[in-house]
Amino acid sequence: MPQRGRLITLEGVDGAGKSTHLDSIRERLHARGHRVIVTREPGGTELAEKLRALVLSQPMDALSETLLMFAARADHVQRVIAPAIAAGAWVLCDRFTDATLAYQGAGKGVAQDLIERLAEAVHPGLQPDRTFLFDCSYEVSKQRLGAAGKQLDRFEREDREFFERVRKGYLVQAVKQPQRFTVVDASRELAEIRQFLAVDIDRL
Fold first, then answer.
1. Whole-angstrom Cα distance, residue 88 to residue 94?
2. What's the mean pLDDT in 184-198?
3. Is 150's pLDDT higher than 80?
4. Which CATH superfamily is domain 7-201 in?
5. 92 has which bridge partners?
6. Angle between helices 190-201 and 22-31 (to 10 degrees)
7. pLDDT band at 1 (very low <50, low <70, confident <90, very high)
């Protein structure tokens, strides 16, 4: 029977650059002999990708948004994440439930206890083994989003107040669970961040 795999998540405000580091983290884990599955949320399955398109483009109230996030997550966990971990793979996921706590919870006011109850229903007993939280200022975020030259989704277009609530929500979670979170200063140079991540990955 294969040894249980692990779930590694990348979190952070839009524009923090977490997606930039997915490949280097995957390569580091692969070099250590792990089979790595890279995925994202919302998304990762055919159904979840359709729900992602709705959430990112269609205006809706915060509760509907939260429920759609968890509908996508339920399918993703059942079809991709849980089977991969059971088969011994390490899953590297761009966002997970911490994003819902930060964006829909801290950002939009959905009750934390409701989000936690939904999380328990959707992925009981499953928490990330390590969460890399990419943190940066509003100014850095906007500069990077502008430089990317892509059409912004409705979350990326939110104002400073929303950004600050989300950022604070993430940092509060990191303080509550220091054994799981590694906070990354995303304003640093790319090479510095990669070296920092490499050291932390090697401790896993």
1. 19
2. 93
3. no
4. P-loop containing nucleotide triphosphate hydrolases (3.40.50.300)
5. 8, 38
6. 40
7. low
How far apart CA 86 and CA 69 sit, in angstroms, is 23
With cut-offs at 50, 70 and 90, classify the pLDDT of residue 113: very high
Judged against a pLDDT cut of 90, whether residue 151 lies above it is answered with no
**Average pLDDT of the chain, as a whole number:** 94
Q: By C-alpha distance, which of 63, 5, 58, 69 is closest to 35?
A: 5
Express each pLDDT in 23-76 by its tens digit. 999 999 999 999 999 999 999 999 999 999 999 999 999 999 999 999 999 999
CA angle 76, 15, 162 (to 5 degrees): 85
Domain boundaries, the chain: 7-201
Residue listed under structure tokens 């090479």: 191
Per-residue HEC secondary structure of the chain comes to CCCCCCEEEEEECCCCCHHHHHHHHHHHHHHCCCCEEEEECCCCCHHHHHHHHHHHHCCCCHHHHHHHHHHHHHHHHHHHHHHHHHCCCEEEEECCHHHHHHHHHHHCCCCHHHHHHHHHHHCCCCCCCEEEEEECCHHHHHHHHHHHCCCCCCCCCCCHHHHHHHHHHHHHHHHHCCCCEEEEECCCCHHHHHHHHHHHHCCC
